[in-house]
Amino acid sequence: MKNIVWLVVVVLVAAGIYFFTANGNGQQTGAAPFKNISPQEVKAKIENKEDIVLLDVRTPGEFNGPLGHIDNAILIPVQELGSRLKELEPYKDKEIIVYCRSGNRSRAATKILLKNGFNAINMTHGMKGWNQIK
């Protein structure tokens, strides 16, 4: 019985941590709303000539590698993003769509941008997803 009580406590604590730190419904506690966008939606924005900025946060090798990159994207690796935010200042009033290979690094980069007042959106599935819809 004692083991069951501990198990319940652990599960409740884990669930609490998850719900307060995850952004499953687009909200993150203490931060700006976190948004995701699909590769299909990004493609539609490009085709509609919407005024967006595409930010690739992979390495230069990946940017020029086999997965390629989206035309007109700005390359700032996620490891350098914090120290290169000034380069994005001209785009502070625009929607910045952030992507990487699969969507993990872009998620972290999107959070950095949001913390610094940018209108950033994470493209889910990254270049892997983008290349599936081409």
TrEMBL record:
Top-level taxonomic group: Bacteria
InterPro entries for this protein: GlpE_sulfurtransferase (IPR050229), Rhodanese-like_dom (IPR001763), Rhodanese-like_dom_sf (IPR036873)
PROSITE patterns assigned: RHODANESE_3
Domain Rhodanese: start-end pairs: 48-132
Protein's UniProt name: Rhodanese-like domain-containing protein
